Amino acid sequence: MQISKVPEISHKDASLRNIRRSDAAAWYDYLKNPEVIRHTSWNLSAAKDLLPQFDAYESNAPDTPIRLAIAIREEDRLVGTVGFHTISSINRSAEIAYDLAPEYWGKGVMQVAAIALCQWGFQQAGFNRIQATVLETNSHSIQLLERMGFEREGYLRAFRMVRGSPGNFWMYACLHPDIA
After folding, report:
1. Structure pTM?
2. How many domains is the chain built from?
3. What is the pLDDT of residues 10-61, one digit of tens each?
4. Which of 91, 117, 133, 159 is most buried by its number of CB atoms within 10 A?
């Protein structure tokens, strides 16, 4: 689903925009890096493997995933993504997911992007709950979620396949401020 009013972020170098099919090569360019996917469940062999994702992002059907590009302002070049999947309008919930090119790690880009998307999710999409599942080995993502105010709720054994092996994940969640 495309967002009509994309949230703005306060990062000096980056902005958010709707993701485009033309972003597939830049997205794959960093997703093929073993250090980027080491702590994720991505399993890609080429940029074309991302194309089914774009079909979902372009759909207007209820509860379709949302993905935004994190782009360098001056170049409008994708360097990361942040979005929601497993959206449930009935339960007013969604799961956040994100990734970022390594040259932007540790620069505050993902934190401001993810916070902006969560605020949009609570204020515009009407979510009561935003959750995240994170591979138990992904300490950087765990730290990010905790800095954003997500709380650890449980341990999910063999929750998702990670390049052919069952992976154990932590479940985190953040509730709408009026509910929390």
Report:
1. 0.94
2. 1
3. 899 999 999 999 999 999 999 999 988 887 778 899 999 999 999 999 998 9
4. 117
- Pairing verdict, β 151-162 and 165-175: antiparallel
Rounded to whole angstroms, what are the CA distances from 60 to 1, 2, 10, 84?
5, 8, 29, 14
Q: What residue type is 56 in one-letter code?
A: A
Average pLDDT value for residue range 130-135? 97
Helices (H) and strands (E) in the chain, counts: 5, 7
Vertex 101 angle, CA 136 and 13, to 5°: 125
Q: Report d(CA 89, CA 133) in Å as an integer.
A: 19
Domain range for 88: 14-128
Supply 30's token pair: 């960093």
Q: Is residue 119 part of a domain?
A: yes
3-state secondary structure (DSSP) of residue 79: strand
